[in-house]
Amino acid sequence: MKKLFLLCALTVLIAAFKLPIQYYTFLRIIITIGATTALINEMKNDVNLWGITFLMMAILFNPFIPIYLYQKLIWIPIDIITALLFLAYTYRKSKP
Length: 96
Hints:
The chain is mostly helical. Helix content is 76%, strand content 0%. It has four helices and no strands. Helix 1 runs antiparallel to helix 2 (21-45), helix 1 (2-14) packs antiparallel against helix 4 (72-93) and helix 2 runs antiparallel to helix 3. It is globular. The two termini are 16 Å apart.
């Protein structure tokens, strides 16, 4: 799962650049899969802040009922925060 979360962080950081719309559709799919996986992992233990964060992330990035913010300048900070959250979660979970 560590590789999935690192892939999510990398793909969302790349999204800060100007790319074709197909990439953003791919991004929505990858982030939704990663956030849902993290959410399921957290729900096994108990509902906590990580679980709520990844639930919100899965809703924001879902490809089925997309949320459009229409301006790249709004998405860039969201993308950076999302990448940092995936990185923090990855290395938090890898510690004993």
